[in-house]
Amino acid sequence: MNGGSARWDLPWGQRTAKIPLSDEVRAFYEGHPYPAPLRDLERHRELYRNPDRRRALSLLLWPTEKPRPDRKILVAGCGTSQAAVYAMREPEAHVTAIDISEASLRHTRDLQRKYGLRNLDLQRLVIEDVGDLGQTFDEIVCTGVLHHLPDPDLGLRSLRAVLAPDGALHGMVYAAYGRAGVYMMQEYCRLLGVRADEEELRELGATIGALSPDHPVASTASRAKDFRQPDALADALLHPVDRAYTVPQLYAWLERCGFSFARWYEQAPYLPQCGEIANLPHAARLASLAPPLQHAAVELLRGTMTKHNFIACRDDRTAESQPVAFDGQAWRNYVPLRLPWTLCVRERLPRGAAAVLINRAHVYPDLALPLNAAQQRVFAAIDGKRTVDDVLRSAAGADRVDQGREFIEGLWRYDQIVFDATGLR
Ligand SMILES: C[S@@+](CC[C@H](N)C(=O)[O-])C[C@H]1O[C@@H](n2cnc3c(N)ncnc32)[C@H](O)[C@@H]1O
Questions:
Q1: What is the pTM of this model?
Q2: Count of domains forming the chain
């Protein structure tokens, strides 16, 4: 950081005047490092013993490419533990992590020491100055940060300037409509002058807990598992800088800053073909819209999304980043891989179902996907090695491959599988 102010190198070479950094944001995160620090990474170590987990995460970003184990990853606004998790998960990658808060970096450094993470480089640096690193990155992870910047466009453009031509950004920003109750409570806290100290946060937690379940903040508070934890409560309600995006605002923001939208990290919540939305009288009209409008309309119908988790790539990328499609014949040669964080439930099933598939990252119960016996046989045949064609031939029969396409597409839409489409290139 440059002594309390920063100069931004914009991707097209313009230079801005010195802009004051948000001392308030920095002070906030020194006092309230977020998320709650992890003492160890054992759970993560256990999870990544399954190699399919890394493979699936790589295919989400690059479905047509062999995993790049030695990639350069930037974790921008790394908080207390995210960068250490990445460094442990991708031992051959080089992970650079930056944060404005020394307190957050200290927690990450403890994990780095504990696990001997030599592939992790930690630096106290603001995102707006990331160009000072003089490097480009294949993967940039920036979750829960850009919506707290005084100028999110400058932050995003700075990341764009250090993204490699065929790199991918995994971003997460707040969603506007589902946070209406949070913004009401932020306003309430401002009216009362609530401060982020221990006593005030305890009282604020008790106040939220006593609100009617009909209050717009109540569902957010009950769904966010750490809402009662003091630093998380401060992060949600007392943050000095906080903005949120609707789906159209998110698309426009990415475009303005030199990115193209690639996909949602979890796409089913945005798709009119998934869950209860698919049964509405408007389902066919919704599905006939262009994808960005579908996503905007479904956000309005769901009404309670609190964040947008997305993947974006550079707008000058020559090859399509997510060419998964089911209209030609290419889908037959995709290799489907089940997402390791999904569940296949076989108890207390709805009538006629042989199993129900659940992606644990989904927050909407209507996105659980019931399978009949024939579908379950196809699902069970997915092994991450065989192509869709082979899976359908072996589990459904050679004459049923075309009918099976719709089911496979549904599994993909519902975030149950990703495709290894490396054969496409
Ligand atoms: C809500 S935390 C998210 C941490 C992490 N990305 C995660 O998802 O667990 C936001 C982090 O961004 C950092 N931060 C805020 N403004 C920043 C800036 N301008 N440059 C770098 N880091 C920043 C804060 O210090 C904090 O650690």
A1: 0.91
A2: 3
